[in-house]
Amino acid sequence: MVKALHLPILDVSLRMKERPVINLRFENGSCEFILAMPTSYQTMPSLTSLAISVRVIGRGRVLHSTMSNQQMNLGNWIKHIGSFCENINAVFSVEDLKFDIPSLRNTLPKLRRIDVVCFKDEPDDRDMLNSQNLLRAFLSDVRNVTLVRVPLGENLSLQHIGTTNLKSLEINFQSDLNLLDVSTWNVESCMIWTLAHKMSIRDLNRLFKLWIKGSNPKLKELSIHWGTEITPDWNVLLGGLKSVETKAKEGGTRNFIIRNFRGICAKIEVKHTGRGAAVVFTLSD
Q1: Where are the domains of the chain?
Q2: Which pLDDT score is estimated for 68?
Q3: Do you know which InterPro entries this protein is assigned to (predicted)?
């Protein structure tokens, strides 16, 4: 069926949950393969489990068809559809399933991106172990990582992940976030979403001062977003940076230029929307 579409596939995204989903993205749309697994499917001892049926959903959530499992297990389906594209991303919900790491490594040897999410209010030790095992298995190979409320421990902390050679790292509401640690990270692009009580303008100011002194030589972009109805004191953020303000944009956005000791310039964009604030650091061309 994939061949019959006669469309170039931009990327393949796998969502590993109770009902695994394989999403194919094209230039003007997408197509989803939803694999219905047995009702007892609560853990993933291996990828050899046979799907009961496969639903195919196209653009606009329109049901295209439901077909039999084609006598293919979950691993076969992933390999089959993934064979049409080298850009493969995987999303793992650690609170839903227990993953068999060797099976995943054999089935997904060339992942480009891994997303690990946990939406439990109170994650337990099993969730933490699941998260650590997944990240250890793929962290040395992937270039892009997204973490959403993932429980981590001392054995594999956010600091360990940040110092890995990554192209991009996206962090969503991680309880162990320390902004000053970002100065030692080895990433090109970093996006952080955090809560107001976790956000420190003074720490962010210190982070930029460390960049001026030579930290984060690989960093090209850093954006930090947090919810707040109070407009932050941008003077605290900019204190001691010797910044030069450029022409302001519409909507209250302000732009500043800073320069490090090597003479490399970067733009700092700050804005407050009434419900949230953001600081975006971008290396100048």
Answers
A1: 1-117+129-135
A2: 61
A3: F-box_Sdz-33, Zygotic_Embryogenesis-Asso
